[in-house]
Amino acid sequence: MKTVTTIKELKQIIKNHKKENRTIGFVPTMGYLHEGHLSLMKKAREENDLLVVSIFVNPLQFGENEDFDSYPRNLERDAILTKEEGADYLFAPSADEMYPHEPSISMKAVKRTNVLCGKSRPGHFDGVAAVLTKLFHLVQPDRAYFGMKDAQQVAVISGLIEDFHFPVELVPVETVREPDGLAKSSRNVYLLKEEREQAPELYKALNEGAGLLASGHSPEHAADFVKKRIEDRTTGEIDYVEVYSYPDLQPLQEAKGTIILAAAVKFSKARLIDNITLQL
C-alpha cells in the first residue's frame, strides 16, 4: 500500500490506472477506523481491481461548537488497518492541501437535509457535498462505499451523484454492530461505563418500533413507542426519533414503501445515531 498526501501525486496515480481500465473502489473516511469502515473496505476490495481509501477530517462539515478539534485521530494505526484490508492507496491530505484558499464556489445541499441529524447541524451536508465532489473528481471511482449507519448521509450522497451525473455507483453497506447490537462508531469511546451498558437499548427500541410499522401501526405511534422505550431504559437525552420515506426523507402518514426509522440520543460526551430501513 502506498500513502499519498498530495493531490498532484494522486491525480498522476489515478491517470495511470485509468489508462489500464482498472476499476476503482473508493472508501472515503474521516479516520479513527473501526470494523464498520473495514467492512466497507472488504466489500470494495472484493468488487474492484483497485481499492483507494481516504482519511481526511473535513473541517467544512463541522459546525460551531462541534468536535472538530477533539475528533479522534490516529493516522499511524489507521494506515496499518487500511493496509491489512488490502488497500492499494491511502490518500491522507492535510486541510491546506484540500482547501489551499477560500473557495470561489460554494455548495449547498437543499433536499434531504432539514430532518434527522441535518436539522440540528446546519451546513453539515454542504461540507459533505463539497468534500465528496473534490474526492470524486480526484479519485474517479467506479464505486463508492458508505455505511448505512449514517443513512441520511447516504441519501444526500445519492442526490449528489444523481444531480451532478457523477459516473459513480453508490454502494450502501449494512451497519456493523457490536455483539450486543450497538452500532460501531468512532464516538463510542466517549461513552461512560454506565452509558455503554445502556447504549444497546437504542437498537433494541428501533427493532421493536420497526416491528410495529411492519404490523400496520402508524409512523407516529411507532416513533412515540421508540421514544418511550429509550427514555425508560437509558439516561440519554433524545435528540429525535423519526420515520420518513427513504431515500427522499419525506414525512409519512402511513407506513408503506421504503421507510427509515431513525433515532439520535445524546449521552454525556457522545451523541449516538442509529436507524433501521424496511420495505413495506
UniProtKB/TrEMBL annotation:
Keywords: ATP-binding, Cytoplasm, Ligase, Nucleotide-binding, Pantothenate biosynthesis. ATP binds at residues 30-37, 147-150, 176, 184-187. InterPro entries: Cyt_trans-like (IPR004821), Pantoate_ligase (IPR003721), Pantoate_ligase_C (IPR042176), Rossmann-like_a/b/a_fold (IPR014729). It is found in: Cytoplasm. GO terms for molecular function: ATP binding; pantoate-beta-alanine ligase activity. It catalyses: (R)-pantoate + beta-alanine + ATP = (R)-pantothenate + AMP + diphosphate + H(+). The keyword Metal-binding does not apply. Pfam families: Pantoate_ligase (PF02569). It is an enzyme of class 6 (ligase). Transmembrane segments: none annotated. Pathway: Cofactor biosynthesis; (R)-pantothenate biosynthesis; (R)-pantothenate from (R)-pantoate and beta-alanine: step 1/1. Beta-alanine binds at residue 61. NCBIfam families: cyt_tran_rel (TIGR00125), panC (TIGR00018). Belongs to the pantothenate synthetase family. Catalyzes the condensation of pantoate with beta-alanine in an ATP-dependent reaction via a pantoyl-adenylate intermediate. Homodimer. This is Pantothenate synthetase.
